[in-house]
Structure formats: C-alpha cells, structure tokens
Amino acid sequence: MTITPIPAFNDNYIWLMQANEQAVCVDPGEAAPVLAYLQQHRLSLHSILITHHHRDHIGGVADLQEAFPDAIIYGPEDIACVTQAMQEGDVLDVLGEPVVVWEVPGHTHNHIAYLLTIHGTAAPHVFCGDTLFSAGCGRVFCGTIEQLQHSLARFQSLPDATLFYPAHEYTASNLRFALSVEPDNQAAIAALAVATDTPTLPVTLAHEKAINPFLRLDSEQIQQQVALQGMSMINDAAVFASLRQLKNQF
C-alpha cells in the first residue's frame, strides 16, 4: 500500500491510499484533484473516509459518488453523505489492511480518526483530520476544550513511531505560535527552518512531542508564558485551555 497527499484548496491535504488498482481517499474537500489523480494512475475509488462534517472535508463527496457510484462513504453517523456510519472501536478492511475507528471529539462533537495498521509495520498510520496538526491542534467549534484535550492525550499514548496524517499544512504558522510560548525550544526552531519551504506531513508522534505545545503542557517555559498572560495554569487542563485561547488570538 502507498499513501499519497493530494493538495486541495490553499492548504488542505486529501490523503489517498492505493493498492493494486484500488484507492481510498480521506476527507475529499473537492473532487477535481482526486479525479485527476485517479484518472492519471488508472485507479478505481473503492471508498471514502470522512473524519468530520466541515465543508472543506466533504465538499467533493457528491462528485466522487457520481463518478464512482459503488464507493462506500464511511464517517460519523450524522453526516448526510455517509453511507456506512462509524463509531468507536469499529474495524474496517481498507485495501486488505485493518483500520480501527477512534472517536476524537473536540474540534467537532463527532470527529473521528482512522488508525491504519499496514502489515509488517509496528506503529499505526493515523488519519486525524483536524484534531491534531503538526505543532498544533484544531480550533474548538461544536465540541468542547475538555474533549479536545482528552483526544490529544489519547493520541499521545500511541507509540512514538506513529505517523499522523493531518488534513492541513499549517505547520509553519503553528511553529511560530509554538515559539511564542516556548522560544527556547531548539527542536521547534529547527522544524520552522524546514517547514517554511518544505511540506512537513506526515509526522511522527515523537516529533510532535518535541515541538507541539499542546503535547508539552509540562514545559516550564510554556507554563511561565501562560502565567505571564494572566491565564489559568492550575492544572494541565487549564494550561491546555489557555494555550488554545492564546492560539486563537495569535
């Protein structure tokens, strides 16, 4: 199996898995680039994985369904275009490989992630939508900040070699924020030098633990920056909420 990023809009990635002549795509916000890739590589679309309901993640589904009417649309149950609803613990067969569904709310109330295990590899490949970005996390819309923190903590429990496939290339701007709250973080400084000119995704969990402030709540420098802003730091949940508020204003 191969996994390919298909750029969409200004900063979206539509991730496409392929094996033999079959393909599965994740969060197709627009159809045209997916259709062009499928045609170029002579692939048939087997199914679509949806993480949440925002338009830049589902906007291309209708046109893809028209082109491939047998394609299965997996996703949260309250999204109209979904043909097979997914919930916590469900296991899919995606091109011969197992994919486990996790519920990871926060960005939205019904956000899910897909954990793919490719035969012969030790750590999963996680299609995390807008829950985790490199050096950042999603903004809270119709979920809660407590849900988002719990979802990121759950991701953080995975093996360090886990590869994350976020749906947006926000890395450079996220790193600038990360350095505003942890300016001495040498790993983040080095990452920003690379991210300015180079696509950064996918990323390992080990890398995110080194650069992502939302996974570094125990950093003394981050806690000091939160305190300097007059924001709460009574526990990890308060630091996380304060960081998300600072990022919203950044």
Describe this entry's structure for a reader:
This protein is of the alpha/beta class. It has a single domain (2-249), classed as Metallo-beta-lactamase, Chain A (4-Layer Sandwich), CATH 3.60.15.10. It is 34% helix and 25% strand. It has helices at 32-41, 55-58, 61-67, 145-156, 171-181, 186-195, 205-211, 220-228, 236-249, and strands at 2-8, 12-19, 22-26, 44-49, 72-75, 84-85, 91-94, 97-103, 112-116, 125-129, 132-133, 136-137, 163-166, 203-204. A six-stranded mixed β-sheet has the order 1-2-3-4-5-6, covered by helices on one side. Strand 8 (97-103) and strand 9 form a beta hairpin. Helix 5 (171-181) runs antiparallel to helix 6. The mean pLDDT is 97. This is Hydroxyacylglutathione hydrolase. Its EC number is 3.1.2.6. Monomer. It catalyses: an S-(2-hydroxyacyl)glutathione + H2O = a 2-hydroxy carboxylate + glutathione + H(+).
